[in-house]
Amino acid sequence: DIQEITTGNAAAALSYAGLMIAVGLIVGDALTGEFTSYQEGIQDFSIGVLAVLILYPIRQILVQSILLGGRISLFGGRLDEEISAQKNIAAGVIEAVTYISAALYATHLMG
Fold this sequence. Notes:
The protein has 6 helices and no strands. The chain is mainly alpha-helical. Helix 2 (10-31) runs antiparallel to helix 3 (38-53) and helix 2 runs parallel beside helix 6.
C-alpha cells in the first residue's frame, strides 16, 4: 500500500487512511477511561488489539466478497485489483468506510 500511495494512487491512500482512522479509534477507545489496575488496563488494551486484528477479515468477507462479488483471498483478489491496478477511488472509499464503520461498531461494543 505504501508503494502505491507514493506513486500517487488515491484509491490506495483512501483505503490506508480509513484503516489508520479505524486503528486509531479502536486503540484510543481501549486506552481511555479511568485507571483501576494494571491488569484491567492490559486486558482492555488486549481486547482493543484483538478488535484491530479483526479488521482484515472484515475487509475480505464484507468488502471483497459481498460488496464486490469476488472470492476471499489473502492477496491479489478483486479488491486489490480494483485499488492497485485500476486505481478505483470508489473501491478505496468503500474499503475505508467499511474499516471506520467496523471500528465504530467495535468501540460501541467495547464501550
